[in-house]
Amino acid sequence: MCNFLIFFLFVGVASVFSQTLNLPARQVTALSGSQFEATIASATLSLTNRENMIYTQVSAGNVPNFYRTLTAVTSTATISGSTQSVTYYVAPDYLAIGCDTDYFLMPMSPMLATKIGNLTGTTLPTRKMVGDIWSAAAVKLAPQPLSAGAQMSTVPYFAHHDSIVGQQRATFSNPLGSLVSGDKKDVIISNDIYTTANRVVIFGWYYQNGTYIQPMTNVHADTYMDYSHGIRLIQNSCMLNGTTPTTIQSILESSTLNTLLSDEGVISQPWYPYGIVISIPQSFAVLKNGSTSLKLIVKNDPNATHYNVYKSTNGKTFGAPIQLKKNNLLLTGLTANQLCYVKISAYDSINNITSGISEVLAAVPTTHTDSTLLVNGFDRAITGNTYNFVIQHGTSFHNNNKYVESCTNEAVTDNLLPLSNYKVVDWILGEESTADETFSSTEQTYVSNYLKQGGYLFTSGSEIGWDLDHSGTTADKTFYNNYLKASYVADAPGGTSNTYYSSFSQSVATSIYASNDTITFDNGTHGTYNVSYPDVITTINGSAADLHYTTSATDYACVHYAGVFNGGTTTGKLVYIAYPFETIYPAAMRDTVMKDVLIYFFNNQNQTTMVQTNKLQNAVCKVFPNPTNGMFIVVTDNLTESSFIQICDIQGRILKEENITTTSQQINCTDFTAGMYLVKMYANGNLQGSSQLVIFK
Q1: Fold category of 370-602 in CATH
Q2: Of 16, 35, 475, 525, which shows the fewest CB atoms inside 10 Å?
Q3: What's the CATH class of domain 278-366?
């Protein structure tokens, strides 16, 4: 069983695993065990149809209630001279259909067992695990073999043996749900799955004295099963040494830990090779790694051994894939300071399976210590979503001398990288809406914490207000009003879709954009997609307006805010556009909008006089040596937790940004060309001082 790992956000060891089989509640109208046995008893029913019927019952939750609570079993081994343990969670009996008072222990093929494992996040045991489970069982039944013959693999024979086991089980006082063994042989995970094609591996059926009837064997084809075969489901997620979450599969694949669960050594493919599907990577990030390289961080997929990495300089034309091992995801030989676009697919070298290709992300290989992150949250499958809108966002940042990294929204909620690493986060939402969620409740937590800690958020999308404020929960509305600082007014300007495609800064005295700006967005003929329903919003909780639609000077399309967000202690900043930034055209206008956003974020206006600049320099920001070869020290007497510097050229373009953590901090700009630069010091988001810097070569 290959593709059913379940990952958890671990709050504490005691709450890691549910210890309950992951199936829906059993319906009161569901068939009992004997009723289901009667529906599949016909000798003319094909194996495929019978197993489809079994899967339908199991997936609908028609298993006994006692069967759902899993039992902890601990296996130990001495590894490198020390005792190690693994605790895993086992179904109390072999897989059954029906209710507590009338259930049917159901033999099945490894193909169906694999499918049910994929559904429930479970695996089958190994030979060693079967023995450990028998040892741990509170109810040890004596095996009850029946006469051999062709009837062994028929449903009536299954039912006959089931009734014998049921009568035997009733002689024990242990309640239902106690761990039972001795009633069946086990279908197991083993290296012998692969020594001969299309085989089922069986083992066990322990006597009460600890010996067993069936040595491990793969003599039967995988379509064969008889009354004595049982399917024991084991939760794949387990606990190593009582504290470390891991999986059954990871331990079996481990060259050091395999002895905890295997007496065959490493089992490199601990599953039956049926229905193996490798998923498209959804949770990943692309980050700078140096002047000519990028690194990828991808949420672990145990089925992937490699990733195929496609790169591009324009985000649309990609070369042949570069195959990288998943533990060494470095993309090298890139051009310094140039945007590089990346998409990936997962590859399973064991089974020679490749996933579909991911969305496109982007980053700049550079030594500049920028802190700008693009988060692509536009996952909605609609006409026009090309899953590559980091092109427009990344290009506009790059044209304004900001060197971006990027990730998917799933990478944020999977904790692949913290938002707090970045001064600016651009959360891309396009036409993401209620069906896919703009900001999920989990994402709201991450974003609100980021803003409370003094982050600068730029976000855009045409359905954010509709999703959160119009259609959302109370919590959604609170987040929208308090952290996006907006209130939803209408689904489209003038209540009319497919009509209005412009916004204006005229008449908006508080706008961060130029007073005569007209910003147009796509109707579907300008290279992206048709923004049919741009949200109409208004200000709330201290925000100020920036743009309005033609329908009214108060039908706002953009708001901004600077201040301490609810629950925070540090000044954060926000710019929220109620239509997608990527749909703004022409490209020069997109760049201008981004420039104005960055000016607002970083107070990057030109100093009014040199006297003011020198005054600031003497107060809080000094650099030496000056002139320098590029290596210098910034000295400040106004250090805060959010202090950082920007180094700009004489045109005001930001070339480098670095957090300042000490009152005397060394800065490396040896890769800069000779010339004059300006070092600006910020604290709590506000400009504190600046110094001129001369670099010579």
Answers
A1: Rossmann fold (3.40.50)
A2: 525
A3: mainly beta
CA distance 292 to 190: 45
CATH class as words, domain 610-695: mainly beta
Q: What is the pLDDT of residues 62-102, one digit of tens each?
A: 999 999 999 999 999 999 999 999 999 999 999 999 999 99
Structure tokens of 534? 């741009």
Q: What are residue 20's DSSP bridge partners? A: 69
CA dihedral (397, 403, 409, 410) in degrees, to 10, reads 160
Q: Please report where in the chains the tokens 């670095």 appear, as a residue.
A: 658
pLDDT digits (tens, 9 = 90+) for 305-338: 999 999 999 999 998 999 999 999 999 999 999 9
pLDDT, tens only, 471-522: 999 999 999 999 999 999 999 999 999 999 999 998 899 999 988 889 999 9
Helix (H, G, I), strand (E, B) or coil at 161: helix
In the chain, what are the domain boundaries?
23-260, 278-366, 370-602, 610-695
Strand-pairing partners, residue 354, are 347
Closest CA to 469 of 544, 537, 552: 537
Contact 421, 370 (CB under 8 A): no
SS3 assignment, position 152: helix
User: Please, what is the angle between helix 390-399 and helix 587-602, to 10°?
Assistant: 60
How far apart (Å, rounded) are the C-alpha atoms in residues 314 and 147?
71
- CA angle, residues 207, 209, 210, in degrees to nearest 5: 70
Q: Which residues contact 473 (CB under 8 A, 6 or more apart)?
A: none
**SS3 of residue 588 by DSSP:** helix
CA 532 vs CA 462, 493, 496, 517, 563: distances in Å: 9, 10, 9, 22, 33
What does pTM read for this prediction? 0.56
| CB-CB contact of 128 with 258 (8 Å) | no
